[in-house]
Amino acid sequence: MSEPVPTPERWRAVDRYFAETLVGHDAALESAVADQRAAGLPSIEVAPVSGKLLHLLARVSGARRVLEIGTLGAYSTIWLARGIPDDGSVVTIEAEPLNAEIARANLDRSGVGDKVEILLGRAADVLPTLEAAILDGSAARFDLVFIDADKESNTIYLDWAARLGRSGTVVVVDNVGRGGAVADPAATRSDVIGTRRGLELLGTDPRFDATALQTLDAKGWDGVAIALVV
C-alpha cells in the first residue's frame, strides 16, 4: 500500500481534525477572527493549533511577562494572555492604528484586556523604548517573545528579544518556512531573505539555542522556529 501524498486537501483535513480534537471552539477567539475579517484585515493570524501551542509554551515556561511583535487582531495575543498568571502581562506592538483598535476590542471582550498593553508604532522604533525600564529595574525582563511581524526585520527583532529577555527566555518566530522558499537559494523576495537571515542568526549567535519545524495547517505550508536565550 502506497503512502498517502500530503496534498493541501489532506493536510487541511488533518489540521481540522487536530483543531477539533485538541483545541475545540471558543466564542471569544472565533469572534476575534470574525471582527478582523469584517474590518478587512488580512487573514494572517496563526492557525488555531498554533495559537494553542503559544498558550502551552507560555504555561510550560512559567512566563509572567510576554512580548509580542505584531498584534493584528489579537488572536494570538488572547492565547498568550490566557497562558500567563492573572498578575502577568503581555506587551504587544502593532504598527497599524486600525489593527490596534480592533485588537483592543477583542482583548477586552475576551476578558484578558487588563493583562495586555498595546504599544502603537513600528516595532523597530518601539523596542528600544522598553529597555530603559528594564535597566532601571522598574520593569521585569520578558519571559517569552513571539515574533510575527514583517519578516525583513527578523534580525532586528531577534536582537531585541535577547536584549530584553533573560537566560531561559523562550523566543518563537512564526512563518519561517515561506512555502518552502526559505530553502531556495534562488529566492529573491525580501520576506524570504529576511526570514533566512533571522534563521541564520539563530543558528550562529551564541545568545540563542534554536530549532525550527515545518508546518502544514490551515495557513498552508510554513514553519515555526523556537529558541531559548542562553
Structure, described:
It holds the Pfam family Methyltransf_3. It comes from Microbacterium ulmi. This is O-methyltransferase. The chain starts with 7 loop residues before the first helix and ends with a strand. It has a seven-stranded mixed sheet, with helices on both faces. It is built from eight helices and seven strands. The model has no long low-confidence stretch (mean pLDDT 96). Helix content is 45%, strand content 20%. With 230 residues, it is an alpha/beta fold. The radius of gyration is 17 Å and the shape is globular. It has a single domain, classed as Vaccinia Virus protein VP39 (Rossmann fold).
Give a quick summary of the entry.
By secondary structure, this protein is of the alpha/beta class.
Q: Could you give the distance between the termini?
A: 46 Å
CATH class: Alpha Beta
Number of domains: 1
* DSSP summary, beta strand count: 7
Helix count, DSSP H or I runs of 4 or more residues: 8
Outline the biggest β-sheet. Answer: 7 strands, mixed
As laid out across the biggest beta sheet, the strand order is 3-2-1-4-5-7-6
- Unreliable stretches (pLDDT < 50, length at least 5) are none
Mean pLDDT, to the nearest integer, reads 96
The arrangement of helices and strands along the chain is: HHHEHEHEHEHEHEE
